[in-house]
Amino acid sequence: IISYANYNVQKVEELIPEQSNCGKRKPVNFDPEKHKKSHFQPGSQMGLDLQSCYLVDLLQISSLVNSTFFQPSDLIYLDLKCNKLQQLNGLEQLSSLKILYLHGNEIADVKKLLTVKQLHLDALTVHGNPLVQQQNYKFWILLNFPQIKRLDFGGVTKRERGEAEFMQKQGLITLKVQ
Questions:
Q1: What is the arithmetic mean of pLDDT over 29-55?
Q2: Cellular location of this protein (predicted)?
Q3: Model-level pTM?
Q4: Which of 24, 61, 153, 175 has an alpha carbon 20 to 30 Å from 71's alpha carbon atom?
């Protein structure tokens, strides 16, 4: 995991090194397919920690990932907790992401999560955001992210999924602020 935790920045591009040496470390004859097939897969657990950085903008997140990681497509974990994020534009470009921590931000509407819907996340945290004041927000997430296995550090049960589906059929998921 590469950590930029607690840097006092507002935009991701402030973290991008001007002369990143990441490209210089790549082998001349690097074959990504052989890399994937090897027993040692250094990228299989790659993560980026951007917690508590005062971030308000993620538009250049893919540039940061590309300049920081040897094999950017192996990034599976991103920690953005305790920033000042209100939207998630830019994250949709991180197609291999599986774990996304967003708790403790300023995301007011659960529908802002639609930006990352196509990422096929396994784990997501949103507690500590204003969006949790929306009635039935958790059920809305379960319906829109059916592959989620963990939400706010808790396992998602079949019963919860069933409740979400029932509530949807009954028209009870309105997402009004409580």
A1: 67
A2: Cytoplasm
A3: 0.84
A4: 153
